[in-house]
Amino acid sequence: MCFGSNEAAAARPAPAMKNEAPALKIGSVRLDNPFILAPMAGISNWPFRRLAKEAGAGLTVSEMVSAAALSFHGKATLKLLETDPALEKPFCVQLFGKEPETLARAAEVAVSRGADLIDLNMGCPARKVIGSGHGSALLKNLAAARPILAALRRAVSVPITVKTRPAFAPGAGGTVFDLLPMLVDEGVDAVTLHPRLTSQGFGGEADWSLVERLAEVSPIPVIGSGDISSAADAVGRLRRHGAAAVMIGRGAKGRPWLFAECLALWRGESPPEATLDLRLQTADRHARLLAASVGGKAPFMLRTVLMWYARGLRGSSEFRARLCREDDLEIQLELLAECVERHRREEGETAASRVKIC
Ligand SMILES: Cc1cc2nc3c(=O)[nH]c(=O)nc-3n(C[C@H](O)[C@H](O)[C@H](O)COP(=O)(O)O)c2cc1C
Hints:
By secondary structure, this protein is α/β, with parallel strands linked by helices. It has 2 domains: 7-266, TIM Barrel; 276-347, Non-ribosomal Peptide Synthetase Peptidyl Carrier Protein, Chain A. Helix content is 44%, strand content 15%. The protein contains 16 helices and 12 strands. Helix 11 (231-241) packs across helix 12. It binds flavin mononucleotide (FMN). Flavin mononucleotide (FMN) is lined by residues 38-41, 43, 63-64, 94, 121, 123-124, 163, 194, 225-228, 248-251, 357.
């Protein structure tokens, strides 16, 4: 399958080093900056989004939410919409589903609960999701996508966006380039591309030349998502590939301050230093925000979350083993503090500023 070439990129003049980008608007919603926290199921909950927002993210997106469950006001599903409109603006809720009217009802619920934008998931590769015709399965069946988009457009007046992949698999159904005219016809306000085929899952490298090709032909803003692990990556991708904005997912796990680094670099300032103390303070705050949000379930979730903050530290595998045996938040935080202190003793203040995406 041929999506285009890199020739246009090669011909483009060298990008300016100062921020000359005009303010980004998605429909009626203005973003302060083009760095967006990606939707990540099981990760992009309110505590995590709040930390990203505090670090300066221009937009935060919820985990994907089942439209069917939301239209029935399911308690666990409503929890995914937890936010504080005074702190999280603009806030985008991502929905997945396949029935136009169900998606329309769910979008109304999401807007009534604070969503400033609605995103339709057309990119999820999970077997359970595509097996029931949701997520990326819609890419294989573009005809089914049109009534969904039309129903969403009729149901809510907030901007609508779509997050998708370049195609499902080579030769399977439509491509994002086939989808684009439909998005424009149906009044969609922006499209996010995670440039890996659905069949690739998260394997291989994201092919940003596809983001660039899409941005060249798209009359609506194109947002690129994939493999950004540092501020230099984020600003570089933004400048080189003509995207209106970039999304950061896995790279922000345990490093919500990445958004502050992106902002500084984008403005031509020196990024703030990500010290070991900043790690500890942020982990502590993350733990307490999580406890306030989910109560007694927090220590279980922290077994994963605190590991993010130990990435790249000496002794982190020993820390992991001990962390998984603890179900007291204070002890979990003490273990992290010990791990950081050991790293400081053995390695000094240095901690990898670029982490491996996982
Ligand atoms: C654990 C996990 C959960 C994800 N959940 C969602 C989701 O709910 N909706 C969605 O559109 N993309 C989801 N994604 C994809 C991300 O939004 C993003 O497009 C992808 O991870 C590539 O960006 P990254 O390399 O910055 O992580 C998920 C990715 C991961 C790793």
